[in-house]
Amino acid sequence: MSNVFVIDSFCKPLNPVHPARARLLLKQGKASVYRMYPFTIVLKRVVEQPEVKPLRVKLDPGSKTTGIAVVNDATGEVVFAAELTHRGQAIKSALDDRRGVRRGRRQRKTRYRKPRWSNRKNRKKGWLPPSLESRIDNILTWVLRLARYCPITAMSMELVKFDLQQMEHPEISGVEYQQGTLASYEIREYLLEKWERQCSYCGAKDIPLQVEHIVPRAKGGTNRISNLALACEKCNIAKGTQDIKDFLKKKPEVLKRIQAQAKQPLRDAAAVNVTRWALFERLQVTGLPVECGSGGLTKFNRTTRKMPKTHWCDAANVGKSTPLLLSVRGVVPLLVKATGHGRRKMCVTDAYGFPKQHKECKGSFLGYRTGDVVKAVTPKRISQGRIAIRHRPSFRLGKFDIHPKYMRRLHRADGYEYTQERSA
Hints:
Layout: E1 5-7, H1 19-27, E2 31-35, E3 40-43, E4 55-60, E5 65-71, E6 78-85, H2 88-105, H3 130-149, E7 152-160, H4 164-168, H5 181-194, E8 210-213, E9 228-231, H6 233-239, H7 244-247, H8 252-262, H9 267-285, E10 290-294, H10 295-304, H11 311-316, E11 334-338, E12 347-349, E13 355-358, E14 364-365, E15 368-369, E16 373-377, E17 382-388, E18 395-397, E19 400-402, E20 407-411, E21 416-420
Parallel strand pairs: 1-3, 4-7, 6-11, 7-10
Antiparallel strand pairs: 2-3, 4-5, 5-6, 8-9, 11-21, 12-13, 14-15, 16-17, 16-20, 17-18, 18-19
Helix pairs in contact: 2-3, 3-9
C-alpha cells in the first residue's frame, strides 16, 4: 500500500514512512492516528527535526476524474496516489431541476414569485459556472491538504495539448496552422476521445483503429470531424464505400447511436479547456513553483516507462521533471469521490415542485453527521463505512440500520467519499 504521512507534535509535515513503520509507532504508543483519509499519524513526543526530503505533487486534471500523485524527484518513488472523481454533472443537474421547478411554478395558480431580471449583479472577472468551479475547488482542496501532511515544494500539472506544428514552426498562423502534422495528430486524438477508443461499429477495444468516413468520400462525404469515425480493419474493409444506412440496415440501434454520437461535441474536453488556466492561476497563488506539461509529453513519459493507462499513472508522468525510473511498487490509489456537504433546502420538493418532505434545522444528531465514517460493532456483525443520520437513534450504515451506541467515528464528514482498493 502507499506510504503513510507523518506530522510532528507541532503539526509540521515530516518524511512519509512505510506502513510497517507506522504500525510499529502506533503499537509502541509513540504516535496516534491523526487522519484516516489520507492516512496520517502524529508523533506524541517532540523529536529532532530530521532532514525532510522535498516532494512534488503532480496533477492530471480531467472533467470527471483527476489523477493525483506525490513523487520524490530524487528517487523516483511515488509516495501517494489518488483518483478524485468530481460532481460537476450532479451540480448542473441539480441547477437544471431547480430552474425547471421555478419556471413551472410561475405557470400554475400556486405560490408565485415574479421574475426579477433587474436585480442581478454583473459577474466578476474570471467567473465560472458552479459545475466547473467545483472541479477547481476540489483540486485545490486536495493540493492544500497534501501540503499540510507531507513536505510539498513544487507542483506539476498537465496544461495543454501536444502541439507539434507550433513547436516546429512557431511563426505559423492562419490556414497553414490547420494543415500538416498538427491536423492529423489533433484529429486522431479528438476521435479517440470522442469514440471512447473503440470501433464505432463493433465496439472492439485494444486493437489498432483506423479513421473512417461515415459518408464515403466516393459518395460525396467530406473530411469534416462530424463525418469521421473510428473503425477496426475488419469493419472498415466490410463497409468499403457503402452508405452507412445500407451497411447497418440489420443493426438499427447501432446506426442510431453512431448518427447521434457523430454530432455530439466533446463536452468533457471543453470543460477541461475552460478550467485549466483558472486552475493554473490559483495554483500559482499558493507560492509554490508550478511546472506545466502537455498531454503529448505525459503520454510519452507513461509509454516509455511502460505504465498502465490510469489517471494516477498519468499524473505521475506529467512534466519534464518526471524521473527516468518511477517506482510504483505497492502503490494503491485512494479513490476519492466528491459528494458535497449536503443540501441547504428546508423543504424537499417532488418533480412537479410540490413539497413532500421538510428537513430538520439541525445537521447533526448525537454528535454524528451524514457522511461520517464509522466502525460499528454489534452483536450480529462488524461493519465500517459512511453513515446517513436520522433524527432518531437509528442511523443507516450500508444496508442496515444501526443504533449510534454501537458506533465509533473514524473520520469526520468532509464532503468526500473514500475507497481504498486492495493491492493484488
